[in-house]
Amino acid sequence: MKRIRLGVLFSYIILFIFAIITVFPFIYMILGGLMSFQETTSIPPTLIPHHFEWSNYATVFARAPFGRYFFNTVLTASVTTIVSLFNSLLGAFAMVNLRFKGKGLIQLVLLSLLMVPGEAIIFTNYNTIAHMGLLNTYVGLVLPFLTSIFYMYYLQSYFGSISDTIYKAAMIDGASDWDYIWKILVPMSKGGLFTVGLLSFISGWNSFLWPLLVTNEDTMRLLNNGLSAFASDAGSETQLQLAAATLTVLPILVLYLIFRKQIIKGVVRNDLKG
């Protein structure tokens, strides 16, 4: 019994140590954004600011259009999330419930495309967007990400856990496929849909390489691109760099803390039990 307790205690200690290692950079980033330049560069390093320099954030917004960066990022991430979630929902439903010729071949092709890394086709996508005249536009920013094979396959495995008899019973009762999707499938799959939506939004929020390629105007930059440019412009003013980084990361952390229960539910699929 004592060995079991010691083992559990040791496991908690290890988890605590790794939690500190993981969380500390984020805590220091937030605190560093409220320090003076001397505190961020002092040796030994200052962990807690003597005076909270809230003016650092005002300086960040004065030197760079972070308000515009926020608007661009929220807009593009929201559009890609809504459209890709809708497309993934319909695609997963078709693959699970519908019967049509060539279904196996289509699944094989989609699965093979899933194996292709995004970096391998990014320049092809860039040439397409450039020839369409969509550089420095919101359409060019979101167009390649309006569908996702990965999200479709995730939802396909999720929908596959729902008994096929439910779909057949709905058809017998006179429901259309559209009625089944919105009145039965979506309510039963809230956890999975929420997980896909949140993952898509975070991916859009953290996007860096694609916006860097298709935009060269300051008014079209997303947060990560704006942060990179600001870090170069701010030079050695580390307190401003940390404040700007906090502005970029904090909304996603808050979003996770608010919806962490729904994320866990979507992963473990508790809402499909019974």
TrEMBL record:
Subcellular localization, as worded in the UniProt entry: Cell membrane
Main location: membrane
InterPro entries linked: MetI-like, MetI-like_sf
Organism: Lactobacillus helsingborgensis
Any Gene Ontology biological process: transmembrane transport
UniProt GO cellular component terms: plasma membrane
Residues that span the membrane, as ranges: 7-31, 69-93, 105-123, 135-154, 193-213, 240-259
Keyword annotations of the record: Cell membrane, Membrane, Transmembrane, Transmembrane helix, Transport
Bilayer topology annotation: Multi-pass membrane protein
Gene3D superfamilies per UniProt: MetI-like
Protein name from the UniProt record: Carbohydrate ABC transporter permease
